[in-house]
Amino acid sequence: MITVTVKWLVDFDGFKGARGEESVTLQTQATCRDLLDLLSKSFGSEFTERIFDSEGKELKEELCFLLNGRNIASLKGMESELKDGDRLFIVPFLGGG
């Protein structure tokens, strides 16, 4: 078993307020997909609709998922493997000009 910390800086309406953190225990060889699917099942539709596209398969583009400080898009995406003690941050992309 492994334990991963998930921290979000995203407003999930009806979901633990604007900022939060959760420690999650998973099977060894779990992926980011496994983690996010587990969180979706645990926290329900508010979480799922906020992070996944309308089909529930791909991550929303306005969010950035950082695994130990690296964007999972530059790793293996949702198939990025997790290790004990990893930290996944869910943050909105910032724009401006």
UniProtKB/TrEMBL annotation:
Gene3D superfamilies referenced in this protein's UniProt entry, alphabetically: 3.10.20.30
Superkingdom, natural source: Bacteria
Matching NCBIfam families: moaD_arch (TIGR01687)
Stated name of the protein: Sulfur carrier protein CysO
